[in-house]
C-alpha cells in the first residue's frame, strides 16, 4: 500500500463509450471488440459424419470428449475431422458441456510479466491440473495490473474487469470488460460513472459493487456505485464517508467489507468501512478486524480468512464476536509459493497462486482440538486447521516470469 501522491496537474479522465474510442495516445481498445454476428453451430458435411469414437454411440463418445483438458485440444484436433470440428471452437465445446450438465472449477489468474509489464489471463483446470490461456484483454496500452477490479460470476461462467490505470499517465479508467467462457471472448459493457483504480469490488445478490480507489488527480475517492447485470447500467450508491484506496475487500454476510490496509510507517491504524446494500449505508469496520487484516482474503463458509503477508504467510480467521483474528492450525503456505501472491477459494479449499504461477491448495477443516467437543477453544471460538498441498501443474517455461495480480474461480 502506497501513500497518496497529490498532483497539481489534472490528469484526463478517460471515458469509454464506443469500442473504437481512443483512450489515450498509448491506450486503446483493440479493434477485435467490434460487434460480431451471433454464433451458429455448424453442421458437418455428410462425409465427416463417421463415428466420433469407433465402437461407441455418439452420445457416449461426446460425453468422453467433452472431458478432455483444454490444453490437449490442439493435439486432439488432428485425430479426425469431427474431432477438429468439436475442439476447434471453444464456444461450441463449452456450450455442449453446459448442455450435458458438465461443470468443473477453473482458476482464472490475471498475471503480468515482471520486466515488460505485459498482462495476460491464464486458466488452471482444477480437475485436470493443466494450464491454458484465454484471449488477451483488448488493451493496447501499458496498464498497471493491480489497478483493475476483477469480479467473477462463478456459476454464470463469466468475469468482469473494471477500472484500471494507464501506467505512464497515472490516468484511471471507466473501463468495464466482460469475458464469457461460453463465447471465449471479451466484450465492452456499460462504463462506470467514475473513473477509478485500486478500488474495492464485490458481488452481492448478483449485483456488482465498487467503492473508493484513486481518482483522476490521484486523490482518494469516497464514492461508490452498483452495476445491475439485468438492466445493464451503473447507479450511484451511498458514499463511504471516508476517502480511501483499497488494499483488500470481501463480501461477507451480504455486506461489502473494505480495508485500506497498513501503510508505512504504520503511524496510524488503517481505515475500514462496511457497506450494507439493504440500507444503502456505510459503517466503520471494527477495530480488531481492520488492524488484523494483513493479507489478501477469502471467504470459506461464513468465515473470513486471510493469508497474512506479515506472520510468515500463516492463515488467520476472523471471529466477529470477539473482534479478534486467530491463527489457523497447520503449517504456513509452502515455501515454493513466493510473494507476491493472489488467493481464491472454492468450498473449503483456499488456492494460493505465487510467482511463476506455482499453486498450492489449502484444505480448511474444523480443528479436532478445543474444549473437548471438537470445535471450540477455551474462549468459546471455533478453531480451524489447514493442510497444504502443492498442485502438480507445472506452467510452461514462458510463464516463469509471470506474477499473479488476481485470481478467481469460475465454473464451466
TrEMBL record:
It comes from the Eukaryota. SMART domains: FBOX (SM00256), Kelch (SM00612). Residues 56-96 form the F-box domain. The keyword Repeat applies. InterPro entries: F-box-like_dom_sf, F-box_dom, Kelch-typ_b-propeller, Kelch_1, Kelch_FKB95. Gene3D superfamilies: 1.20.1280.50, Kelch-type beta propeller. Keywords: Kelch repeat, Repeat. The keyword Repeat applies. This is Disease resistance proteinisoform X1.
